Amino acid sequence: MVTVGLTFISALVGWSATAALTAYAQRRPGVAVIAWSIAALGITVGLSAAVIGVMFDFGGATFRLLHVGISLIGPVYLAWGAFEYAVRAPNARFTSRLFLSVFTIVPLVVLAVDRVSERFGDSFPPLEHYDLIPRALVNGAQVFVVVLLVTALVAIVRRGLGGRGKVDLTVVLLLLVAALLSIVVGRAGLGAMGPVLMLGSLAALWGAGAMAAKPRRDPYDEVEDDYYDDEYDDVDDELDDPQEEPVRRKRRHAENHEEDLYGGAPSAPPSKVRGVITIYTLAEGEGEGFDRLAAAVVAQVSAHEPDTLLFAAHTVPSAPLQRIVYAIYRDELAQEEHERQPHILEFGRLLSGHVVATNVIELSLADAAANDGLAAMLMPR
Question: According to the UniProt entry, which residue ranges have a biased composition of type Acidic residues (predicted)?
Answer without folding.
Answer: 232-244
